[in-house]
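Appendix B.2, paired examples.
Example (i):
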Amino acid sequence: MTQIIQATDTKQRILNAAEKLFAQHGLAATSLRAITAEAGVNLASVNYHFRSKEELIRAIYRRRLEPINQRRLEMLDQAEREAAPKPAPLEKILDALLDPLLEAKGSDAGAGVQVLLGRVYAEPGGIAVQMLKEQMAEAGQRFGAALHRALPKLSRAELAWRMHFVIGALAHTLVAGKLLEYISGGECSADDTEYAHRNMIAFALAGLNAPPLKTTAPARKVKS
């Protein structure tokens, strides 16, 4: 039992140290040697628990995003059950998508998510994008299908654009909340989770419910 506890403690120390250094220096610039020094463990411990730096990064994304996505899917399941056989209401879908992340914002988990999302924007061509795609695969499919049922008049391309803007607003609120304090002269704070939720839902509903564009999105050019 003692060995299990020690192994678990060592694993968490490595994860916490890696997350801290990733926030300070980025994923690519942080070496395993720096992580082991921060965690106070040897390289063999990292290899034992994670096998590689990529697997360590994957474990960090999984630790922070899996609980949030699980809660998202639970809320979406409930909304769809209550609405069946009709599509779930758009507001309920957005609640399920946005609430778990906003609720986590002030916690250790929320701080970790901010770090991981920040890496996606700071290192757009790096491994962060791959990890985010992996963790969002199931939730992305489920929410995409629910949104298509709720907004049948929108083409897939137009819905994709609008959700791109909604997700961007969410990420911006999580990562760059201090900017809100600046542009509001200190009157608003992104740490006000309830008010952030109400404003974001209103914003998202207005954007998603806007009439379809009269022109279709141009076909994407395939690179040869």
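Example (ii):
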Amino acid sequence: MKNFLVIGGSKGIGQALIPLLQASGHQVYSTDRTTYAAGGDSLPIPSDVILDGIAYCPGSIQLVPFTRISESMFNEEMHLNTYGALKAVQLALPHLKKADQASIVFFSTVAVQTGMPFHAAVAMTKGAIEGLTRSLAAELAPKIRVNAIAPSLTATTLAEKFINTPEKIEASGKRHPLNRIGEAEDIAAAAKFLLDSESSWITGQIIHVNGGIGQLKML
């Protein structure tokens, strides 16, 4: 049995990830994003727990024209998507270093490496997550692996306004070569793989789980 911490475990991908880990016999500690998005200073786990992995799941989808990105909006995005992840890992590191091997999983977005209109704010802040992933993977090797998942549009409450009618779901699905949008379980399965020992030779990678939209062009 291993011990994992899922931050953002009350909704969406984090919520889907927890039962996958539990089904493999692991202990899962979970908290919502509020404390860590605000730069909290404690973890919801006993001080003597050895952590085998942490997943930082909070994110945002604020799609606005570039000219409407304000300093306050950018700071809000950066605090949630980037600083929240940084702070959570800083707090978790003493627990992670006690494990023989540990894993950290972050979440980026397909929009970082595939330019999309109105995605500038989220792409900038999630792009910082991709930089953090590679830098931290180098710094913490060989005992702690660090990877990130870059999804496309996924059916979660976070994306609700983009998929709140059958017509929107169908239109969004058709933009993907696999002809559907993602489900939380699709992304959670990748996160579970990266957290557990099956991925023990993978670190510093951005895993693209996006229905093919970032890499393929259909004729």
